[in-house]
Amino acid sequence: FMRTAGQRVIRRHYRGDRGHSRVVRPPVMADLLETHGGAIQVFEVQGPIFFGTSDELARRIEELSEEAETIIVDLRRVSEIDSTGALILGRLDRVLASKKKTLALTYLTEGQEIYTFLRDMGLLNAEMRRRVFDDTDMALAWAEDEILTRIQGDKKTHGPIDMRKATVMQGIKSEQVWGLISEFLVRETYEPGQQIIADGEKGNRLFYLMSGRVAVTKQLPDRKLRLFSLRP
Predict the structure, then answer these.
(1) How far is Cα 120 from Cα 129, in angstroms, rounded to an integer?
(2) Angle at the Cα of 93 from the Cα atoms of 154 and 110, rounded to 5 degrees
(3) DSSP symbol at 22
(4) CB atoms < 10 A from the CB of 55, how many?
(5) pTM reported for the whole predicted model
């Protein structure tokens, strides 16, 4: 017990202006995240979260995240959580909310033993489940979107496609060529989770993303690996 309680519960702590998500964004948005990304803070937690470590964990997070808006707690290396740990996480969520801060938890998936325990303890209610992510990269992408929406507003593109602004097209000057290109433009809409193109298919199309997010994944023998995401 003394050895476990004496271990450092926070393995690593970093800010969102130093560690970004794997979302490819336009340069102007990337610059904004360099400036304002510090409002996101990530805490990688390790070992058991139990009565010997949970108070210290909550205290350290509150101390280190004074300037943060979104606090992401990475539970990938957490071996177990007891009832005291679950209650402390719930209390931390309420304390941060009272300060207009948002808590997110990562590496929690339905069916997982820790997920089931936290759900049964009442921590993973409907509101909290919206802030639970499969991995920290997904949580970072969500937190970055929240910052960009607050700064820029919810800018969604619904107008005509202007391919001239696409980087790959900027060398084309001929109006005749543009006339030919415009004949091939087709607007398509995809449902959430729908596959657009698969590994190994013939690459005979160019996609220009207008809104939403596209994930680029690789199927491994035991899981699907998300390489990165694309924004408009």
Answers:
(1) 13
(2) 80
(3) S
(4) 14
(5) 0.77
- 């998936």: which residue's tokens? 109
At residue 106's C-alpha, the angle toward residues 104 and 109, to 5°, is 120
160 Cα distance to chain centroid:
29
Please state the length of the chain: 232
The answer to whether 45 and 11 have CB atoms below 8 angstroms apart is yes
Q: Using an 8 Å Cβ cutoff, are 130 and 157 in contact?
A: no
Q: What is the pLDDT of residues 133-164, one digit of tens each?
A: 989 999 999 999 999 988 887 555 445 567 77
Specify whether the CB–CB gap between 23 and 141 falls below 8 A.
Answer: yes
* DSSP notation for 64-99: HTTT-SEEEEEEEEEEEE-HHHHHHHHHHHHHHHHT
In 7-82, which residue ranges form alpha helices assigned H by DSSP?
Answer: 27-36, 54-64
